[in-house]
Amino acid sequence: MTPVVHGPTVDDQTRCVHYRTELDVIAIRFACCDTYYPCHLCHDATADHDSRPWPAGSGHERAVLCGVCWTELTISGYRGARCCPRCGAGFNPRCVLHYPTYFE
């Protein structure tokens, strides 16, 4: 079953109104609601609760979605990748700046 990505997406590769470069092709499944959003700003704008990061030790959780091939990656697999291991789509290297928002 294909995951649903919530929030103000602008295309079918999970880009959103906040982040829409060629490399902005992932969505995050938020620990607080088990729901995929393109980014923390999309979550904050549309969810009815505060976000919270995945707790330490959650690296095995499939919580990152490649918007190009729709493969779900583990947190550990995503954090160590510059691109999708399945389709080779590049990931935005600046996303690392937001890791504390998503992952403890």
Q: What's the story with the biggest beta sheet?
A: 4 strands, antiparallel
Q: Percentage of helical residues?
A: 10-25%
Low-confidence stretches: none
- End-to-end distance, in Å? 28 Å
Morphology: globular
* H and E string: EEHEEHH
The proportion of strand residues reads 15-25%
Number of strand segments: 4
Summed up, the helix count is: 3
Strand order of the largest sheet: 2-1-3-4
Give the class from helix and strand content and strand pairing. alpha+beta
Report Rg: 12 Å
What is the mean predicted local confidence, pLDDT?
A: 96
Domain module tally: 1
Protein name: CHY zinc finger protein
Organism: Promicromonospora vindobonensis
Keywords: Metal-binding, Zinc, Zinc-finger
Pfam family, one: zf-CHY
Structural commentary:
With 104 residues, the protein is of the alpha+beta class. It contains 3 helices and 4 strands. The protein has one domain. The chain is globular, with a radius of gyration of 12 Å. 31% of the residues are buried. The mean pLDDT is 96. Residues 9-89 form the CHY-type domain. InterPro entries: Mito_Tim_assembly_helper (IPR052604), UCP017292 (IPR016694), Znf_CHY (IPR008913), Znf_CHY_sf (IPR037274). Keywords: Metal-binding, Zinc, Zinc-finger.
What's the SSE blueprint?
Layout: E1 26-30, E2 35-37, H1 40-46, E3 62-66, E4 72-74, H2 75-79, H3 99-102
Antiparallel strand pairs: 1-2, 1-3, 3-4
